[in-house]
Amino acid sequence: MSSQAEVGDRTEVDGRTKAALKKRERRRTTVLEAALRVFSAKGYHQTRVSDIIGEASIARGTFYLYFDSKNAIFLELIDLLLERIKENVVGVDQSDDAPPMRDQILVSVRRVLGAFQQDRPLAKLILREAVGIDAEVDKKLGDFHRQLHTWLHLSLLNGQQLGFVRDVDTESVAWCILGSVKQLLWLVLDEPDADLDHLGEVLLDFNLDGIRT
Amino acid sequence: MSSQAEVGDRTEVDGRTKAALKKRERRRTTVLEAALRVFSAKGYHQTRVSDIIGEASIARGTFYLYFDSKNAIFLELIDLLLERIKENVVGVDQSDDAPPMRDQILVSVRRVLGAFQQDRPLAKLILREAVGIDAEVDKKLGDFHRQLHTWLHLSLLNGQQLGFVRDVDTESVAWCILGSVKQLLWLVLDEPDADLDHLGEVLLDFNLDGIRT
Amino acid sequence: MSSQAEVGDRTEVDGRTKAALKKRERRRTTVLEAALRVFSAKGYHQTRVSDIIGEASIARGTFYLYFDSKNAIFLELIDLLLERIKENVVGVDQSDDAPPMRDQILVSVRRVLGAFQQDRPLAKLILREAVGIDAEVDKKLGDFHRQLHTWLHLSLLNGQQLGFVRDVDTESVAWCILGSVKQLLWLVLDEPDADLDHLGEVLLDFNLDGIRT
Amino acid sequence: MSSQAEVGDRTEVDGRTKAALKKRERRRTTVLEAALRVFSAKGYHQTRVSDIIGEASIARGTFYLYFDSKNAIFLELIDLLLERIKENVVGVDQSDDAPPMRDQILVSVRRVLGAFQQDRPLAKLILREAVGIDAEVDKKLGDFHRQLHTWLHLSLLNGQQLGFVRDVDTESVAWCILGSVKQLLWLVLDEPDADLDHLGEVLLDFNLDGIRT
DNA sequence: CATGAATGAGAGTTCATTCAT
DNA sequence: AATGAATGAACTCTCATTCAT
């Protein structure tokens, strides 16, 4: 009995405590979203902690209840966003008997373009503001780039084996492709009404066949 | 003429004044170069005015005798550097009876790659550190990008008229090309011993013919 | 009686209320003891309320249910500790027909040394950390010192009347004695295995006969 | 000529620069003295950097031009003060054929008492406020105490060899003496008009002959 | 022109205390 | 009574810029 009573508080682990945890998570998300908005609007360095807590409507101390520092919340955002992008890229089937590479990549490209298009702040942050802020951030971005490059590189090698890709310096070309994709993404940021489907096709055709007659 | 106008205020002996101006100009350049070194090594935000005056071996106040602010000297540097790059690009002959485009562009590409390769600090600054610092800087970089894009765009249209370029969305493709170039430049920053001639060819071949068999 | 008065407000079953009071008192003590541990380990200023509630395993708010503030609990601790010490000192018989002063004092001295030795945290707190924290704390310590001094002073005067103490400035000498005692106590804090009996004798002999041949 | 001209600025190393250095040193001293006043009045923890710069009539940044941190200036003060005290103590001749120890020590004791008496803030700081602030400060004070103890200890041993000091536990007794001195010093802080000569004699007599008839 | 000491607004962070649950 | 998330005042320290010499 007494043990029951004493555990009483904890019995609600599935009630109050879980609810509390949920609330806490919601709050965290609120702050994260607020931070994303401010960071993407003003850039990391122009953003003051005051801006974030203002946007999130919380007190100064509350911010530090959820995040260790301004730098920490930024890092967490970057992690989150890179994760989201990867989800949209990795879903491509690289097996030998997969559908034609062009179709696959087109889907992937459209997905990524769409993802960026939908989540503008996210994209702005990663493409424009996140470079040169911090050694750790730079590393994360660098790693991310290298992952994307590796994925492209392997795709190209695979294509060569299948006879779809001609004899090129796959490594360098992978970088070229990555560069052209990034540039279009950058563009999309400034033109909310861009025709993504068209852009995707252009991107693909260009990468596949170049510009020569 | 212009020199007369500039010295206009001082009616003193021309020699002294000219010498003074020259000395002043030398000093300015010294500081600019010092700033370039520091900015490119540490990035804009990590660079303190103390770092610059230390590198230039001048006093704190002297710095403000030559430049209005930390931001101003950075802007001036960017201007300078963008000018240098343009010089390497614009020299391409776009007339109808010019040599084959491929050769022309290859020359141009190799020039740009080489310029960046030689002046690392410059390249690092523009590609990595200059984004998101300041609205004005962003605008300058944006304008620069647009200029490059316009030049590429016109080249493509020209190529189409000459029958060298197939029927593509020239505007978007121009961005793609720009992106692939920038990406390779970025790479070059980290690999001082990269084979620029090879990279230039890869870049060109990729852009001309894509990857398709 | 007094318990009746205190419980006066609550006309409920005496048992429940008494038990509640007891529980409350136990909790208070728990917190006090936890605070003593932390304060003596880290010092007043390095101690966070978080440290105390962590050590006591209570919630943040609970702390303020039992004590008004961090300062208040510290003050209460000091009071408690000074009381304990006094109990060990005051027990000396100052009547005319008491046993030889030397023996009495020796007993007392050993008691105090032992008390401090046993309750390190207490001693550390009072001797090392409590000075300069707060006007109120300083006053309490000052008063305590003055009480000890008065007791010593009276003992000396008494000793003079009995012919055991020579013609000295009793007031100043009382301070000297107090000082030498405190110094040895301070030492003992750092040497847990000190020979207290020996130290007590040394202290006494020194105070009685000085160092002269 | 030009070399002369160029060195011209530096030729004044003995003029302007030296003057500048002197001015700088004066300013430093001003701030140190201001800090001493505030620290001794309010204690380390109650003292804000704002208080110091207010007392010294300098700007916030100026403070950090001269001292690394609040802690650093405090440490420097402590060093300075301990140095001053040592100067007053060490001047005692411990050679075999020196004047009678009593006279020597009396001089020394009076000196120290006087030094403390004259420089109240100093004394208050060291005796009352400096304990428990900082590991480094604690170490400095501890070392200082040990130095004093060592000096006393050696004096006692010396006295024993000369037959002036009876057979006592010199080490412990040295601590006792130190304690009685410190206690009187403490007292003196609160009584500006204390008769130092008298106190010195009392102290000495007590330490030499104790209180026994 | 050159200097560098002085400035002070403003940043990020801490932590004792409160209060809704 | 117990909880712990929320609060915000107050802190120390930085650094671009100014200005008397």
CATH class of the largest domain in chain A: Mainly Alpha
Q: Using only CA atoms, what is the Rg of chain A?
A: 22 Å
Shape of chain A: elongated
Largest sheet of chain A: none
Protein chains sharing the most extensive interface: A-B, 43 and 43 residues
Q: From the helix content, strand content and strand pairing of chain A, which structural class follows?
A: mainly alpha
Q: Count the beta strands of chain A.
A: 0
Q: What is the CA-CA span between the terminal residues of chain A? A: 87 Å
Pattern of helices and strands of chain A: HHHHHHHHHH
**Tally of alpha and pi helices of chain A:** 10
If classified by CATH, what would the architecture of the largest domain in chain A be? Orthogonal Bundle
Number of spatially distinct domains of chain A: 2
* CATH fourth-tier homologous superfamily of the largest domain in chain A: Tetracycline Repressor, domain 2
Mean pLDDT over the full residue set of chain A: 81
The CATH topology of the largest domain in chain A comes to Tetracycline Repressor, domain 2
The proportion of residues in beta strands of chain A is: under 5%
Helix content of chain A: over 70%
- pLDDT < 50 runs, ≥5 residues of chain A: 1-11
Oligomer: homotetramer
Annotation keywords:
homotetramer, 213 residues, mainly alpha, Arc Repressor Mutant, subunit A, Tetracycline Repressor, domain 2, 2 domains, 10 helices, 77% helix, 0% strand, elongated, DNA-binding
Overview of the molecule:
The structure is a homotetramer of 213-residue chains. The first copy, chain A, has 213 residues and is mostly helical. Chain A has two domains: 1-67, Arc Repressor Mutant, subunit A (Orthogonal Bundle), CATH 1.10.10.60; 70-213, Tetracycline Repressor, domain 2, CATH 1.10.357.10. The first copy, chain A, has helices at residues 2-11, 16-42, 49-56, 60-66, 70-90, 101-118, 120-129, 135-162, 170-190, 196-209. Residues 1-11 of chain A have low confidence and may be disordered. At the A-B interface, helix 9 and helix 10 of A face helix 9 and helix 10 of B. The first copy, chain A, binds a DNA duplex (21 and 21 nucleotides) through helix 2 and helix 4.
